[in-house]
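Write out the 3D structure for:
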Amino acid sequence: MTKKDARLLHLGILGCGPISQIAHFDAAKKARNVELTAICDLADDLRERMAVLHQPRAAYRDYEAMLADGRVEAVLIGVADQFHVPLALQALQAGKHVLVEKPLGVTIEECEALRDALEKGRSGSPSPSVRSPGFSRPEPPTNPTTSEGERPPPPLVLQIGNNRRFDPGIAFARKFVQEEMGELLSFKAWYWDSLYRYTMTDNLQAIPLISEAARKPAGNPKADRRRYFMLTHASHLVDTARWLGGELLSVRARLRNRFEAYCWFVEVEFAQGALGHLDLTIPARGDFEEGFQIQGEHGSVKGQVFLPWYHKSSVVECFSTKDRQYRRPLGEDAHTYKLQLEQFADRILHGDRQHGANLDDGVAAIRALVAIARSIERGERVTLAEVTGGV
């Protein structure tokens, strides 16, 4: 059983669909510094079943009612991509911190509008504890007094659920790249989603409950497989590239679609001058494969990443020319959904540095995805700064 901290972040989860059932409810219950205070979903049957199973303090049909609950300090948004931005904005305006599933949104313009709104809300605050009227936050629930010397809580926090950042192996690789590698020469990464993924995951996960009353976006976003794969899977690949390799300046992409399979090869120009190559293949004939290779001035990194549902750390080896040795972490706790939620809570409760993707990261990621799409359409290299629209 998880030993909980004295001070807990009181969390409300919006959406009782598959991602919450498989990842977020479990993460909230296991996180050392989080209480699952409320859940919310329009589907009565789904919400009632999840309330019985996970025992939150409250279960709401109406999102505004959950946002009005003074016990709820932060909201986790686990619904369709098309709803992310407006629901995140609504939560921020209600004074709640937000952890929103990736990607941040589906167009550059809506993501930038969200960033502008949050910055405008913050700019009216003379101190972290005072906010402009549009972003005023209710007082948190009664908890033990903050210990002397502890940092004050930050302004409203928005974090995007790029959970790969919390894989212990990837975190180890980033530290090595930042502190020991020196200049980067090259970065390669790949994400091959298996044709047999659901055979694997069905054996790992409880079968998610589905409701006909669940709210869905207009049309069927999953019907456009090319766009769906980019938003769902390439968003992981792009964030890993930025997290380990730095900012992306431009891309030149090619796409091949045969026998209902898609393969993107993306040539990347990094801001610091390294060459990059990204490979997204869905579905691959074989096992799920995700990984990266980095060559730098004073060493190299190799990483093999597993499906997150195994809760197994990636296998990462970092070689240093300083001592001519390979280093490999164990990473025994690799529940990345739990770890990202704990760090989100630590940021809010104790003012810790944010390791999760922030709004700037979210905007940069959607810019990269749009640039890849435009490069394929035009058959030429595309600069991220110039693109507009959606994937």
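Residues 165-331+366-386 form a domain with the Dihydrodipicolinate Reductase; domain 2 fold (CATH 3.30.360.10).
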